Amino acid sequence: MTAPPPPDDLPDEFTEAYRRASEADLRRPDARVAASVLKEAARAAAQRGRSFAESGFGHWKWKAAASIAAVGLIGILSSQIYRNSSKQGTPASAVVAASTTPAVRNAVPDAELHEGSVPALSAAPKLPTRVAAAPAAARSAAPAAVAAASATVPDNHTVSLYQSSTRALVPLTAPSAQTAASPSSERILMALRIAHPDLFGASATAGAVRVAMVLNADGSLYKSVIEVPGGVGKQEMPIAEELKQVLGVGGDELQSFPRERLLAADQEHAATIVVELGVRKDTADATRAP
Amino acid sequence: MPRMAEADESDEALMLRYSHGDVTAFETLYHRHEMRVWRYLYRSVCNRATADELLQEVWFSVVRSATRYAPTARFTTWLFTLAHHALIDRHRRTKSDPLPDAFAELAADEVDEPSRRAQSVQHADAVIAAVEQLPKVQRDVFLLHAEGEMTLEEIAVATGTNYETVKSRLRYARSKLRELLQEHV
Q1: Among A40, A121, A239, B179, which is least packed, fewest CB within 10 Å?
Q2: Is the pLDDT of residue B87 over 50?
Q3: With a CB-CB cutoff of 8 Å, which residues 34-73 of chain A face chain B?
Q4: Is pLDDT above 60 for B65?
Q5: Of B26-35, B86-95, B137-146, which range is least confident?
Q6: How many angstroms separate the CA atoms of A247 and A267, rounded?
Q7: Higher-confidence residue: A11 or A266?
């Protein structure tokens, strides 16, 4: 009677024999390698300590200035639109129609619309845990601008005004059920490149990176965070729970069931990116089918 | 030398300590895994100088990635994934076979190191030689499993292949080893 074959993950006789042989092998790497690596490790640790001390306050100031600028820009845009519509006594849709006729809107490709949102995202203040998100002020101010304009605009033009006045701040592409339910890897990668360009630059290091990410219903980025040491990233935690803890997005806000995606990010640099992905319900139009 | 407490500490805890600036934690990690990573690289490229160069590259990557390190997987899985990618990158740079067959270098080492020959057991040499004769993809999977102690699923993620492919490669590797080592088993 023969013994049952070992499960594939368990070492077999050859693995064990190889390990014994390998341990007995007296060949070793050159001692200079160890010296060089340990020296580099010490140098990098010292440099990190210095740069943290030197630049911490500077980063804080930059983030604060960016936040104020974003809020100010929203305020100016909102007041301009409101003033135009009330002074001229013409429906705001007329102003909008000049620049954003349906034909023009239809002619604008999705990619361009997304590019429009890039500056806003990159200028958005980054949270301490490296969360990249659309500015909170933008998210709250945009619907306010729509509401103000809607008072004088027929309902069927509201969407046009919303799109034109907040183009740089709010994702614009017409959502489709397919996009929302199953964002493609390319779309996820695009959002990743916007939110975390350091994963793709020349200085990016090969290795596994874990990113929690929530996309808007139209496939654009809502929030994203690289899980940092000491963060919530526990393998056993359900993804929905993790998204809630890391990004503050609850399961009731999500349109599709959160899941994990493995991306081969970049042939040259970042190697594998594990994305815990959720898609957010469309808050702009609650009647849209999920 | 690493402190006593560090010897018992997990790889992940040591890496986190290094990411917060503790260089002694890194030294412990390095000495703990230096040989396994080097053996994986050496048996893959069969050239000592290249293996040394890649070993340095892998650990430099660890140093550079320290601030971004998140213990979402075993440290060794991450480390051997870096080593695997270092091999692939070297292949791209040199446009050579990333995991070449081994005979010439093995013979050269034997001539260079008579003391090693004197100390080594014939069977051990045969096992290593057999592993080095495996087809490159089978050898890679076998070494990641044997040296990296990675599960098949971890190997699939690290190499960008699917689980079933990894499983069959390992099975073929074992079958080939059985064939090559028939007279020693």
Answers
A1: B179
A2: yes
A3: 34, 36-38, 40-42, 44-45, 48-49
A4: yes
A5: B86-95
A6: 28
A7: A11
Q: Which residues contact B45 (CB under 8 A, 6 or more apart)?
A: B51, B54, B87, B90, B99, B100
Highest mean pLDDT among A1-10, A11-20, A267-276: A11-20
* Residue A283 to residue A134: CA distance in whole angstroms: 14
Q: A interface mutation test: which of B31, B78, B85 has the most A CBs within 10 A? A: B85
> To the nearest whole angstrom, how far is the Cα of A182 from the nearest Cα of chain B?
21
Mean pLDDT comparison of A92-101, A104-113, A178-187, A231-240, highest-scoring range: A178-187
Q: A148 versus A229: which is more confidently predicted? A: A229
In terms of Cα–Cα distance, which of B158, B37, B164, B41 is closest to B100? B41
Question: Which residues in B lie closer than 8 A to residue A27 (C-beta atoms)?
Answer: 42, 48, 109, 113, 116
Token reading at A146: 């729509």
Interface with chain B: mutation pick from A10, A13, A15, highest number of B CBs within 10 Å: A15
Q: Mean pLDDT throughout A17-43?
A: 91
- Sequence-distant (≥ 6) Cβ neighbours of residue B5 within 8 angstroms: none
Q: Which residues of B touch A14 (CB under 8 A)?
A: 127, 174, 177-178, 181
Mean pLDDT of chain B: 82
HSE (side-chain half, CA atoms, 13 Å) at A21: 22
Q: How far apart are CA B154 and CA B73, in angstroms?
A: 9
Closest residue on chain A to B16 (Cα)? A229
User: What is the value of ipTM here, to two decimals?
Assistant: 0.79
**Nearest C-alpha of chain A: how many angstroms from B74?**
10
Alpha-carbon span A154 to A161, nearest angstrom:
11
How many Cβ contacts (< 8 angstroms) between chains A and B?
Answer: 167
Scan residues 42-101 of B and list those with Cβ closer than 8 Å to A.
42, 48, 51-52, 55-56, 59-61, 63-73, 77-78, 81-82, 85-86, 89
